Amino acid sequence: MGDAAASLSSFAAAHGLEPVPVLAAGPLTPLLVESGAGRIEPAAQGQLGDGVSGALGRLVYTRNKTFRFAVALTEVPASTPFVPRLFCVRAGRHTRDDEFYGFEARYSRLWTESVALNDRYRIAISPYQDENWLRQLFSPAFVDWLASDAPESFSFELAYGALLCSTEDADPDEAALAGLAAATAAVTRRIRRECEE
Amino acid sequence: MQINRTGIGLIAFFLIFGAAFAVVPFLLGIDGEATAIFASIGLIWVVVAIGLALYARRARDKAAHQDQVFRTGIKGTATVRDAGSHVTVNEMPLMSLQLDLDIPGVGSRQVSHREVMPVFAADRMAPGLVLPAYFNPADPGDFILVW
């Protein structure tokens, strides 16, 4: 844990981010909801990439067992009318170990059109999503990047403009944090660009 | 609401073990009192499984109806006037919403609407929020809220 905090601290110093002991993000996305309070701790805020600002840090919580993620949080407010919810989560990722409920709110459905992404991700969208817009967002270049070049165990959740990118990295070093920050900036820019078109 | 894999597993569990509890003691010729106890438990479990299955089927039919309204309905808006929740269902708030509906070609009306939402969506429900809504052309009171 100390190593992860030290890595974040050095990464923040090297990239001009402002260290924040605790960032109370709140229940913005499913992963932050699973974590309970949605506390990113420790965190650092600032520029994650060209034109993209946000926060980077660790999300740790216990639901029977302890889950640890490296996370980066940004905002794309313009996305809400086009895609209120978009969850692109690594296939097989578990975010809780105490799931006993047999019924859940019908708030998402799987989008399996992209064969290239299906091996690596499970993509969930609103039941009432405009799929044409989604096809434009998942351009061949973006699909190729997600399938081949995104950091290992990378996932992202976009909910009402809040974009949380994460890796299942309990102890990320500076290189891993740099990879997550760059990937988050890339996803943010891609969604932004599609919203502007 | 919709059933998930855990729900399917629960139905299968109660149905299979309920049927086994109800039938196996008879087949094994266990004495009367024990057989009656097992059979009672088994029947209760089977009833639970049937109840869950019926609830799941009702939820599926409702979802199919909502999909139909989405495909064929009139698109309008719903503005949240008030939102709150005092009840949770499986860790998700049951939201009570007061809405101003604006239905093109029909007019405006105020309605109360209740819906179970995940926390990250419920957290966004605040007065002034404008959401898309789709209305059944045959019955504008029948609508889906796109949250």
Topology:
The complex is a heterodimer of chains A (197) and B (147).
Chain A: H1 2-15, E1 18-20, E2 23-24, H2 30-34, E3 39-40, E4 43-49, E5 52-63, E6 65-75, E7 85-90, E8 103-104, E9 109-110, H3 115-118, E10 121-125, H4 131-137, H5 140-149, E11 155-159, E12 162-167, H6 174-196
Antiparallel strand pairs in A: 1-4, 2-3, 4-5, 5-6, 6-12, 7-10, 7-11, 9-10, 11-12
Chain B: E1 2-3, H1 5-28, H2 32-72, E2 74-89, E3 92-103, E4 107-116, H3 119-122, E5 130-136, E6 139-145
Antiparallel strand pairs in B: 2-3, 2-5, 3-4, 5-6
Helix pairs in contact in B: 1-2
Sum up the structure in keywords.
heterodimer, A: 197 residues, alpha+beta, nine-stranded antiparallel sheet, two-stranded antiparallel ribbon, 6 helices, 32% helix, B: 147 residues, five-stranded antiparallel sheet
Number of strands of chain B: 6
Strand order, largest beta sheet of chain B: 4-3-2-5-6
Largest sheet of chain B: 5 strands, antiparallel
For the CA atoms, what is the radius of gyration of chain B? 22 Å
Structural class of chain A: alpha+beta
Strand order in the largest sheet of chain A:
1-4-5-6-12-11-7-10-9
Most extensive contact: A-B, 23 and 36 residues
The protein's oligomeric status is heterodimer
Tally of helical runs of chain B: 3
Strand content of chain A: 25-35%
Overall morphology of chain B: elongated
The helix/strand series of chain B, from N terminus to C terminus, equals EHHEEEHEE
| Secondary-structure class of chain B | alpha+beta
